[in-house]
Fold Oligodendrocyte transcription factor 3.
Amino acid sequence: MNSDSSPSSRASSPDMDHHHPVSSSTQAGKMSESKSASSSSSVESSSSSGGGGGGGGGNNKLKLKKQVTEEEMYQLRLKINGRERKRMHDLNLAMDGLREVMPYAHGPSVRKLSKIATLLLARNYILMLNSSLDEMKRLVGEIYGGQHSAFHCGGGGAAAHPGGSPPAQLGSGFQHWAGLPCPCAICQVPNNPEHVPSSKLHIFLI
DNA sequence: TAGGCCATCTGGTCCT
DNA sequence: AGGACCAGATGGCCTA
């Protein structure tokens, strides 16, 4: 039941950001001992090396500066993490948008497509649409012969529709562009992907 | 319980 | 310098 369908349920736990990476017990703190160790050690090493040296009257000043730098580094890290999180959320939104326009990708009883499945399905769907479009063009060419081939994707001239004058809303300046569907009634094909012949569907997830 | 999927963190690289 | 992008690492959740 789409347990993973809500990125927000898992994602964006902003309170995470309120923990200090060095002392936190959050995911970031628990994760990647080597990573967190390296990050914290980099801070610590810098602090130790920075704080350890010198001596004399400038030491306090140096320490204060070091603390500010660590705090700034932490804030910067939070900022960067937040940006990355937002970026990934935007990516997921785009992925959801892609899922929405994919046939058979949604429905009450259909499990949400994974990202990789969504991309593969989209690719195959586009390929299938292209082949369908080519076949459609071929059939139209067969039916209307040279007439339609003259109008369809014609060489930049005014549309010469086989049935006579072009639809009024198109005007005389309408041009057919290769690869784009023609808005005229003759060229209209159902764009509902669920009308795709089932014989074509097997290529979706191949 | 293993494997798949995901979110997040993090450091590096490239670009503006 | 700062931001965007990327890939690796890690841990959590879910399902077979």
